[in-house]
Amino acid sequence: REAFLGQPHELKARVVFGHTTFDEPLVDDDRIGLDTRAYQSGKLTCGVFEGADVRFLQTGRGR
Questions:
Q1: What is the value of pTM for the model shown?
Q2: For 28-59, what is each residue's pLDDT tens digit?
Q3: Considering its fold, how many domains does the chain have in total?
Q4: How far apart (Å, rounded) are the C-alpha atoms in residues 42 and 34?
Q5: Residue 31 is part of which domain span?
């Protein structure tokens, strides 16, 4: 995980991932982390991708 998150150069495509948790979605130019600890925080997050744009929907206690 650390090697992936700390990779200094841009990836060839945008990668959407989970199983590495954050309080809010992680958004970089080439990485989007969606895991907001729903099991612990009660906040479930999903990404809505429309072309190059992304927006997030959240539900649960963390909202």
A1: 0.82
A2: 988 999 999 999 999 999 999 999 899 999 99
A3: 1
A4: 14
A5: 2-59
